[in-house]
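Marked as duplicate of an earlier ticket. Keeping the data here for the record.
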Amino acid sequence: MKKITLIAPVLLFLFAGIAGAHGPVRQKAEEQITINAPADKVWALIKDFGDMSWHPDIFNTAADGGNKKGATRVLTLKDGGTITEELKKYDEAKMSYAYKITDMSTAKTITHAGVEEKVPVLPVDNYSASIEVEAKGDTSVVSWTAGYYRAYTNNNPPVEMNEETANAAVGAILKTGLINLKTLAEK
């Protein structure tokens, strides 16, 4: 009986420690836009995985592998940062593809909790996304969805790499891209 009495508080203490020590929660961003243009016209603007010229924040894209699974692209941002992405799924018939970020350059270095931390150009970790064009009569609906974690995966993140900063950055990329895509497709 004494052993059970001693074990119960130890287990309770361990459980409380585990429950209180949680890391980041996977975030999701989804943006949708209706474009007054046929789906095939809109798809023609974005279907080449190696061409991100439709996104105003992308200065240049270098790609290898076309639209085949495993293809890669390196996006050079207007500020000079780079993001490397890999094509995970491509479906011409469904006018969609999915990709993930495999590498990013560092935007800056900060000191957090006495440690030098590299802040990536997009303050996220384990980012994957998909984009799809859907015909709606003479118009199109483009959906761009991303799942990711904040860049700082330990507890108590600095503001540069917390959920709010990650969500704002990803939301801005999706919105800006879709708004510009609408402008280009409706010309």
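See parent ticket for discussion. Strands lie at 27-35, 58-64, 72-77, 82-91, 96-104, 106-112, 115-120, 124-136, 139-150.
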